[in-house]
Structure formats: C-alpha cells, structure tokens
Amino acid sequence: MRTEQPKMIYLKDYQAPEYLIDETHLTFELFEDHTLVHAQLLMRRNPVRGAGLPPLVLDGQLLELLSVSLDDRELGAADYQLDENHLTLQPSGNSFTVDTSVKIHPESNTALEGLYKSSGMFCTQCEAEGFRKITYYLDRPDVMSTFTTTIIAEQHQYPVLLSNGNPIGSGPQEDGRHWATWEDPFMKPAYLFALVAGDLWCVEDSFTTMTGRDVALRIYVEPENIDKCQHAMNSLKKSMRWDEEVYGREYDLDIFMIVAVNDFNMGAMENKGLNIFNSSAVLARAETATDAAHQRVEAIVAHEYFHNWSGNRVTCRDWFQLSLKEGFTVFRDAGFSSDMNSRTVKRIQDVAYLRTHQFAEDAGPMAHAVRPDSFIEISNFYTLTVYEKGSEVVGMIHTLLGAEGFRKGSDLYFERHDGQAVTCDDFVKAMEDANGVDLTQFKRWYSQAGTPRLAVSERYDAQAQTYSLTFRQSCPQTPDKQEKLPFVIPVELGLLDARGAEIALQLAGEAAPGATSRVLSVSEAEQTFTFVGIAAKPLPSLLRGFSAPVKLSFPYDRDQLMFLMQHDRDGFNRWDAGQQLSVQVLQDLIGQHQQGQELVLDQRLVVALRSVLANDQLDQAMVAEMLSLPSEAYLTEISEVAQVDSIHAAREFARQQLAEQLFDSLWQRYQANREVSKNTAYIAENEHFARRALQNIALSYLMLSGKPQVLAATLEQFDAADNMTERLTALAVLVNSPFEAEKAKALAVFAEHFKDNPLVMDQWFSVQAGSTLPGGLERVKALMEHPAFTLRNPNKVRALIGAFAGQNLINFHAADGSGYRFLADIVIQLNALNPQIASRQLAPLTRWRKYDKARQALMKAELERIRASGELSADVYEVVSKSLA
Ligand code: B3K
Ligand code: ZN
C-alpha cells in the first residue's frame, strides 16, 4: 500500500539509465516463514549518460535490508539512504560491485507479484515491476544482465528447483536441504526472471531445431495433473516448428520449461526458458477441459513461446512500449492459431471480442493509445488496447506490405535489435527500411486513442459506368483531449454484381482491370475512389477480413445484407453481414420494447438463418458463428444509452422466435452431430470443434422450446458425454432452463464428481454466475460461501465475480444498484489482498457513462465509496480516479 499520492509517469520524461548491470548473481534461501535473497550485481556507469557519478538509486519494495556492501566493503547506516521504494548509494568508480541481503515473505504474499507461494510451491511473477519485491535492483526493462541463480531449499518438500537458462550444478547439503544453480547466458531485463521450487512432476519431450540442435522440453505440474499435459506439449512443439517456418526464428537454450501454478494473476508469463503458466492455460484433456479451453491452451503456449524472440531477445525500452512485444506477439499467435484451425473462424472470434470489449475500453475513461504516453500503475495497461488493438496495428502493417514485405521487415527487426531494448518506432523503422516505404502517418495508430469511424457512401454513374466510394473518417474525443489527425486505414474490398459474382477492379487512371479484391489506403479525412468499367450498380463488400479496427458504416438495407450473407466470397464479411442484419433487427425490437409495443421479429432474419442451417457445404463452425446473435455486451457497446432491460428482452425474444421457427432444422442438425459425437472418441481438432460448436449452439436454442424431447436429449448429453464441451453445454442449458429439479440434480452431480478439480469447479461457478434468470446476485452470493470458492485465487474471482459482472448484464445492472454495491464491496476487499485483480474487476463500473441517469448515479456512488474506503493501491486508485474525473 502506498503512503504518498500515486504519481503519473510520462513517456516524455524517459531517460536512459545512469548505471548498467552486466552480471547478476542471486542466491535464494527458501524457508517456511521467510526467504533470504543475496544479490551480487556487477555494475558500471552507463557511458551514454556522460561523466560524473550520480547516486545509484536501486528499486526495492517490501524488502527488509539485512546488509549492503559496495566493492566488498559493508556499508553502515550513514552510507546509504533507504525509503519505501529505494536504496540509494554513492559509487566511487565507474565499475563496482553491489552486494545486498534482504529478507522477504513469500508465504504471506497475496498480491501474487514478486516471489510467492501457490499450493505449497514457490514461484515468481516479475513483469512488470515485481522484481523489486525480490531484491534491490534497477528494475526497468532497458537494464539487461546475465543471471546466475542458486536456490537452496528443504529437499523433500521442494525436490524441484528451477530458474532461467541452463542447469549448471546441484547437490545435497547436510541439513536435509539441497541446492541447484542455473545460468542464463542471454542478457535479459529483471522482469523475465523466474524461480520455481516445489514437489512437481514433469512430462518430457524434445524438439530438434532447424539447425539440428536438440532442445529438452519439460512441463512441470502437481502430480495429480500429470495426465493433463499432452495437449500443451503438442502445442509447444507445433509452435516451435511454426516460428521456424513462418518467421525463421529458432529456439536458443538447451531446455524449455513450462510450470503450471494455480494462483496466477493472468494467463501466463514468458520468463526466459522458464515460462510460468496459470494452470488453466496448460492443463487440458477431454474429460475436464472444453474445446474453447483446448484452443486457449494452444494459443497461450504459442504466445509465450513466441515471446522468446518478440519480447525476450528483443525487448521493450520502457513500459510505454509494451505493445511492441504484446501487440506483435498477439499478431503472431493469431497467425499460428489460424494456421492450426480455421482462419475465418479465428478472425470472427477475435473481431467479435475486439469490437465488444476493446471498443468499449477505447470509449471509456481508461482509453489510451496503443503506446500510452502516461500511466500511474503499469499493471493497469496490460489492456485490450495494448494487446488486441496493438495486434490489429501490426496486422495493418502486414496488410499494407504483404506477407513477403512483412517478413523482410520482421527479419530486419530481429537482426538489427537482437539483444536490445527498443521502441515501437524501431519496429516500424525496420518495416520501413526493409520495404522502402514511409509509415510516418501510419504511426498515428500508436499515438492516438479512440476508435475511428469510417462512414462510406456510394455513387453510381450509369452513363459513365463509374462507381465511386467516398470515405469520411473521424475519431471521437478521448479523455486525453488530444486532437485527432487522419489515420491510414487499409480498406480491403470487393464489388459484387447482381448475380453475386465478383467484379475485376479498375480504379480511374489504371490501365486495366486487376484483382477482384484489393486494399485501398484511406489516409485523408475525406477521400473518394472511383472504379471504372462498372456495367451496373454493384454491391460493395467493405473492410473484408476486418482490415482495420474501425467502426465502418454503409447504408445497407436488409435485403442487401442477406445477399452478402449468401454471396460474399470473403467468409468474414459473410458473417459480418449476418451480424449487421441481426443488429438492425434487434434494434427494432429494442425500440419496440422501449415504447411498450408488442415485439415483432423481422422474418428476414429467420429466412437468412434458415438458409445458413440448410447449407451443408458450410463449415459447421461458421454455421455456429452465424447462428450466434450479437451479445448483450456488444449491443450495449453500440448503443448511445444502453437500455439494459430492453436489450435483454429483445435478444431473448429473438432467440425464442428463432428456436420455435427453426426448430426442425436445429433438431435435425443437433441429432446428427450428437450421433457422431457418441460414436467418435474426443479429438481436439478443428473439424471436431466445429461439429460440437454447432451441436451445442443448436441445443441451447432448442431448449428454449421447453419440449420434453429436448430435455431428454440434454440429460442424455449431460450423463453420457465423454468430454467437457458437451457436458458443460448440457449443464449450462439446464441451468438457464425452467426445469428446477433437473437443474439442481445436474449441478450437484457435477460438483460431486469434480470437487477435487479446481479448474472444472471454476466452470461450474461460471455457468451459474452467467445465468440470466432472476435472482442472479443471490445465487452468486451463496456460491461465495461454497468451500471451493476463495477470493485469494484469481481464477475463482474471474469465474464467479468476473462472469457475473461481465456477462450477466441483466442481473448485474439490476435497477436497485445491488449488483454495483456487491462489486464495490468485493473490490474493496480485493484491494487489500491483490490490487491487480481488484482493479481488473472494477472495469464494469468504469463504464457508467453508457447507462441511464439513475444507473449512472448508482454506479458513480459506488466508485465514490471505493475511493473513500481507505488506503487504495495505485492500481485501484488510478482506475477509480480516472473514472470519476
Ligand atoms: N507478459 C505477460 C503479462 C504480464 C502481466 C503483468 N501484470 C503475459 C503475456 O502477455 O504473455
Ligand atoms: Zn504476451
């Protein structure tokens, strides 16, 4: 906890470090009630900072200093200054050695940052600024050092002792303790440091790199999870091969390790050679993890592995550059997942997520640029903007340069900056230099916050046979009050003729028609492109593949959208046309509900979805995606003022209508797919994911009919499924149904069967937290009393509290403010336990401007109450104060 008012830190104040650390030698003595950390730092004056020897200011927090020496001379209290965050010494030469010993308390560290204990094992999380909770250090990413790490611990309880790099020695001591030493020869910043000590088993494999080196691969888990590692291991080997093939990147150490821990603030961490993972991002097998969980494990294993180059070998100069490694690495993992599964479905899911959640962030009080220019607490900036929008920005560079040009740029980037800590500008510069292009204007994507709007209008001239598209871009005001200049927006498009065929495109001034799909670069506030040789008025297919993270509008009517759903050659845009049609239809219903009218569903939506369901040529995962109506969260995001009750009522009404009118086709496809599932062993592969996706969304519609044969089918699937995807869907369908007895029984059977598996229990919590039936808050409060629940485990908090406030909008936004009060109470408790998790859970309250006046007042009152609740962590302070500003 802070004692001073947290301070704002600015990118413009960046200065290179005064001193550098060439070698770091650490010894950890782990005990049950404390840990001793001895650090020896071989340091020197940073030559770029010129002559003179200013004081050396080391970062350190929550450390009990036992001793400090400078060049082997132990310092007395008069020789240094100590405050809550720093240890300051006066060096007397250009090169010197600092030795410190500190005492820390991992056993009582509930913030899960620095060194802490999880389920009896020791582990670390240092990014962004956790290393300063381990020892005094220059804890900033532009200070890079080699590390040797010795760990000493009791042998029986902690037989496995791990750190970064390669193992160079180990042995017993006389007192029942043992030691191990690891050496990491690659220069790295402290945020990539890791240590693990515990009673772990491991699954082993190996990988031969493209130059023929053998790398040992190990996944360490608690003994009871040893049967759930194979999927992660397969994913790791695929990632290593893919990064060689697609980016030419080879792994560098002799060993690569992953350790799964139960208490972890996010998904995983890319520490050099020793990735530490939330167990939810490693463990997966058919009986306990859904298809979505399998895909998430594959993606996160890949993401962390890819960081070895985009993040570790080339790292960030300062934390404002976070998207340098995160945006690029998300882009890389998305490419990998697309190659492993379905590119179109991956794109649909990513875009739906971005539009719902990142767009909301970009329109709220925490809006910031992909490269923010200020922050109070960096942990608050591991955001959808830095990650997902950052990935979109890299993706636009890829679109503008083409695959080959992009690869030239990434090769140059890695070659030029290997071993360095660099900036987003350096990344773009490599792309420019490798391709001989100028991306100066494009770089506004890094510095301007907010989601650009792109309004498109058309004009057809029958006489001249020309077709013009005019693009007008604008960007809404964000809290930084920054003036927004035009972005470079790559718009991929095609034109369809009346039969749905693609027209070869020729812009005015071009010699001949060319491809049928092309990228226009819109770079002015208003810009017109004219196509020639267009025999009849075409229908445009715009922003194919979602080629830029903008809100595009074009005045399509519903028949045109249905036409695009049928004929667009771009799979993403076929889906998107369906979404736009659904949005229009749902907005009608929302309006009707607002005015107290009877709800009437536009039959065109039924017709469109009936033909999707009847098309057995379509990828089944696509059918499932097209059947999914826009979520309540998305409908909220696109509303001026979100009418919580009307949005819910409208969407439920549409689902009910679709279920009734499409019952026969849904039932037929459900049964066919369930039949295949019954006769096929579970396989975590694309075509099987697709089959189950369609089967499961069909079941969730069918249950709305309340027909006895559907209840029977649901119970059959719940009882007999050999995998969690089918079982959990059946459970969720029951939980949202009116069949109280069956629901209660299924919940009890499930909990009894899986009570010893915390990750499965998380799903059990989530399914109930997400139930939109009345009484949601009471159910969540009762579940908090369940023995499997604890506020100390981030996965549990996310599964119950996060799912309730983030997905159960009708209950969370109850008009009496009870949901808000509940969330504020939780945040106040979490603030003291785990500030990072507290501040994440706050997000729904920060969106108060979206709601009606009464709800706004209630939400703000809760933010005020948090602000006044006592000593706030910097994390919570920043979010609360910006939300109320
Ligand atoms: N780099 C880590 C995130 C660390 C977050 C610290 N609060 C995981 C990742 O993006 O790979
Ligand atoms: Zn990352």
Describe this structure as you would to a colleague.
The chain contains 27 helices and 31 strands. With 885 residues, the chain is α+β, with helices and mostly antiparallel strands. It is globular and about 85 Å long. It binds (3S)-3,7-diaminoheptanoic acid (B3K) and zinc ion. (3S)-3,7-diaminoheptanoic acid binds at residues 127-128, 266, 268-270, 303-304, 307, 326, 379, 382.
Question: Strands, helices and their partners?
Answer:
Elements lengths: L8 E2 L8 E12 L4 E11 L10 E4 L4 E7 L2 E2 L6 E2 L3 E4 L5 E10 L9 E5 L2 E5 L19 E10 L5 E4 L2 E7 L4 E12 L6 E4 L2 E8 L5 E8 L8 H18 L7 E7 L6 E2 L4 E5 L12 H16 L8 E2 L5 H19 L2 H20 L11 E2 L8 H34 L3 E2 L1 H12 L8 H4 L5 E9 L4 E9 L14 E8 L20 E6 L3 E7 L6 E3 L9 E3 L4 H10 L3 H24 L8 H12 L5 H8 L4 H6 L6 H18 L1 H16 L7 H17 L5 H13 L3 H12 L4 H15 L3 H12 L6 H9 L9 H14 L1 H4 L5 H16 L1 H7 L1 H4 L6 H15 L6 H11 L1
Parallel strand pairs: 2-12, 18-19, 19-21, 22-24, 25-31
Antiparallel strand pairs: 1-23, 2-3, 3-9, 4-8, 5-6, 5-9, 7-8, 10-11, 11-16, 12-15, 13-16, 14-15, 17-18, 20-21, 25-26, 26-29, 27-28, 27-30
Helix pairs in contact: 1-2, 2-3, 3-4, 3-5, 4-5, 4-9, 5-6, 8-9, 8-10, 9-13, 11-15, 14-15, 15-17, 16-17, 17-19, 18-19, 19-21, 23-24, 23-26, 24-27, 26-27
The chain binds (3S)-3,7-diaminoheptanoic acid and zinc ion.
